[in-house]
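Archive maintenance. Older records in this collection stored only the sequence; we are now back-filling the structure field for every entry so that each record is complete. The fields below show one back-filled record exactly as it appears after the update. Entries are processed alphabetically, and RNA-dependent RNA polymerase is next in the queue.

ARCHIVE ENTRY
Title: RNA-dependent RNA polymerase
Organism field: Echinostoma caproni
Length field: 295
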Amino acid sequence: LNAERLQVLPGRSTLWSKQEDEALLRLATELAPSCRIRRALYARLGGHFSNRSEEAIRKRLQLLRWSPDGALGARLLREGEQSPTQAILSESIVDDERESALWVGAMQSAIVDSLASVEDEELNTARLCQLVRDWREGLLDLRSVQLVFEQLTAETFPHVWRPSTFKYRAGAAVKTKRQIRRAQFAQVQKLYATRRKDCADTVLSGDWRAAHESSLRRPTSLGEFWSQVFDQPSMPDPRPVEAGPPKWSVLVPIAAHEVTEALKQMGQTAPGLDRVTTADLLRKNQEGLAQFLNT
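Back-filled structure field:
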């Protein structure tokens, strides 16, 4: 009877076989998207490895350098033994990926928690919250999130302004000096009221003298200049590139009061293609705008 019981008891060997390592990495990669915290993942993995404790599973995953995407741990498992230099580089890569995952996860949680109490149909906060929640839970990859977010941004802030360049009207030729002066003054005055930079360029370049003409004068040798610019061979830059440590502090969530202060400092800035001014943005929900910027 004792011999039969010993045959069905799980083995108590503390050594992990290669088959167990491969199964552990595969199951961890499959179960990770459905587990919000690591403790829940270890508990679910413990159900598949009855002879291993949750602490043993956690230490084994750390030893295998497993990451949430599963690719890094599997690659290191296939490579086997590594040199000390490769081990140091692999450890630094794992540390960067782990640090990146922590900061991105904190940003995702901050966006979801903030938008959970904000309901603004004008900013589509409900759709934005659901998008970030699906991303955090692993239902969408980064590329899919980018495509959906671009579409959501285009719907929330559509481009309603179609810019056009100034066109000279071909009409009757101006003959008298009084008509020429009036045309020149009107052209400069119109540019000063609409586009002051173009007005300054027109005055400094002397193009204001041709305001009465029906066609726009081009600078001499314009085509030759741009042909020379685009036809010249590229010059390599031999300067060494110094790779500094990553600054994860840029992923700190933007607060609503920071958005308000920035909009007030912008003042009467010209709007973009969406024709939304700073005054329009100040009237919108600042918390929703902050989470749009965070996303």
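Update note: Residues 95-156 form one domain. The radius of gyration is 32 Å.
Entry marked complete.
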